[in-house]
Specification:
The structure is a homodimer. With about 425 residues, chain A is α+β, with helices and mostly antiparallel strands. Chain A is built from eleven helices and 25 strands. Chain A folds into two domains: about 120 residues, Fumarylacetoacetase, N-terminal domain (SH3 type barrels), CATH 2.30.30.230; about 300 residues, Fumarylacetoacetate hydrolase, domain 2 (Alpha-Beta Complex), CATH 3.90.850.10. In chain A, about 20% of the residues lie in helices and about 25% in strands. Chain A starts with about 30 loop residues before the first strand and ends with a strand. The interface between A and B is large, with 63 and 64 residues. Chains A, B: Pathway: Amino-acid degradation; L-phenylalanine degradation; acetoacetate and fumarate from L-phenylalanine: step 6/6.
Amino acid sequence: MIDATHDPALRSWVESANGHPHFPIQNLPLGIFSPPGGGAPRGGVAIGDRILDLPAAAALLIGEAAQAAAAAGAPTLNALFALGAGPRRALRAQLSELLAEGSPARARVEPLLHAAADCALHLPARIGDYTDFYVGIHHATNIGKVFRPDNPLLPNYKYVPIGYHGRASSVRVSGTPVRRPSGQLKLPDSEAPVFGPCRRLDYELEVGVWIGPGNELGEPIPVGEADSHVAGFCLLNDWSARDIQAWEYQPLGPFLAKNFGSTISPWVITPEALAPFRIAQPARPEGDPAPLPYLLDDADQRAGAFDIGLEVFLETPGLRERGLPPHRLSASNTRHMYWTVAQMVAHHASNGCDLHPGDLLGSGTISAPDEAGCGSLLETTKGGTRPVELESGETRRFLEDGDAVILRARAENPGFVAIGFGECRATVLPAR
Amino acid sequence: MIDATHDPALRSWVESANGHPHFPIQNLPLGIFSPPGGGAPRGGVAIGDRILDLPAAAALLIGEAAQAAAAAGAPTLNALFALGAGPRRALRAQLSELLAEGSPARARVEPLLHAAADCALHLPARIGDYTDFYVGIHHATNIGKVFRPDNPLLPNYKYVPIGYHGRASSVRVSGTPVRRPSGQLKLPDSEAPVFGPCRRLDYELEVGVWIGPGNELGEPIPVGEADSHVAGFCLLNDWSARDIQAWEYQPLGPFLAKNFGSTISPWVITPEALAPFRIAQPARPEGDPAPLPYLLDDADQRAGAFDIGLEVFLETPGLRERGLPPHRLSASNTRHMYWTVAQMVAHHASNGCDLHPGDLLGSGTISAPDEAGCGSLLETTKGGTRPVELESGETRRFLEDGDAVILRARAENPGFVAIGFGECRATVLPAR
């Protein structure tokens, strides 16, 4: 739903917001921050290079918006997520007015702003369960080709939004380093595995979905109602140890190859902020089966997908030393998701599985169809056989210690102000 | 460590405890209960057919035991689990004295007991993450035979304690019915899947492991210290929709086939209570590789396994109507676990994955090598081809609506008083 909060003419009295690459007044993402000096973590809204203290702002709001801001007084956004779309929309509408140029409330709002650079950002929610999907069809095809060149996609792929359970405890917010894992590695020249540091450390470019209101165990969520269970979106780096994965994953799927850490961006981009960037679900290639009825909803087909540009950058010690900018590894887009978010949610709950506010869903790696749009090094370097060459003279088959991976997302649509997701960044620490 | 709390001559002034099949004074398992009339959930200890209110008993305890009992004032045992073995042992020792025949404290303790039959039992902890292993080697072999008759175990099985992440949100305590899930089913005579109620609903006989003190992300747990991270044990029924599973599980493992519900027994059987039932890790068959060093600990090899008898009973509407007892489907034993609990924990954290108090690990299905010891109907009925015949005249290939599955466990060792785990029971409700 496009409303006054999306007006491209809308400007904020927070000067840094106007033209800000991520957080103009049209975005207003939610997060959890500690103010300078180290107060208790609480809800906040990013506006330009500032963060608005949400619980402190509750007194300036009315009705459902005040209720939402008060719920953000907790150290996680779970309670706010649980309130659903009504209070979240009311909050957006009133904050948009308070922060707009000419707002008579400016003098009362300004003291509630903190310089973002001086704040600490935290995980936005206590993650009950984390589920990772596999809806990036070009990624699934690229990976499948390694094993089945003639028939890369398994027979279930175009019927089932494939997903599996990930590890909730090891999800960390952007900026937290990730430790290179050790594990069992089966080297090609050896009968038995050895235990040692991962040699094929990789990233995966994903979008994360925050669940808002949940469902009772045993009660499916119809696909037409699924969007009302979504609280927002983030970037997600699903770090992957390819050598550990190759040896351990049969028959029950990835485990230690993934659960040593996942990194998410701190800001929750709301469905409201992303309304101008909705697109029709891209047409399925001719011959692909129609989604089964429980996954098919007209409105979702018409406007359930997103046009959001995604980028991955690699920052190596060599680039840093030489003062060179991070190397862009990949450019992709959420339009390469074979299933919509509503289909992911409806499928997840189709057997009665109960979702809860603060659950996190990952999209799976989103690769573009072209070689410059691979969402992992495994794809970009063809399993490590075609190293990436960097301006520093370095090469990379997989990630090395000291490397930082940076994910970015930006939604653009002519006639609207573009918004960004902020950054999802982490640096690789050497193995213990 | 065997101490005075295990003395077989020890009797309780709670008469029902003496000779109780599950909860003699030598057991003293921990749980969360609501007293009759519906007070707030709190920690309790089962003794015979009574439950001792733990926070109420804190005033009768001293030192670490009092600390443990006070921690049990919360509606979950997470805080008690986090305290680790010292306070848990002190609690056991002092409760054993308070409840023993001749205790001078009897008059003060007796008012703190409730009739278990009048109490509600809850999940003992808030489960952060739930991980399911696959350490029942006879189960893995039975399942593998379906796909690879000549080479049923995959090459990694004897090196890797295979595990995967399950769904924490849908774990329920014994007594909560389980709703038959619907899902995508690929019928043999059809090209495309259909969506409908599961036709091949199954149980899985497992033991659950409660995690006590956790580890920091990035910091592995050495196998020699792994037992100190375990708070206790329960029974676990990992309900499985075999038809959904067969179609969805490639390439990332089981998802909707499992996450519609898991049932656990309410009582946490402590490592202390199980000390008399420790056995050496059964010798690996000749030719099996030795565990890699990070999974190998002398003390664990000598006494890291358990001798606990496991049983599965099926109670059908027909048996109930005719007043017939539940049918015993299976008898197995924890000695059929190929990996010890310490090996499971050490492996889980070997890549730095962080475990937390209240995390739940499942063993995976524990089948005995013989046909009467299969831990699932898939095995017992050979994939539904050899139905089980019941005294009521009913037959079962898989579970039908109204069926109840009951898991029981009992640890016996001559010279000690046998203890039980209580019951893990749930009834199948028809699909929505």
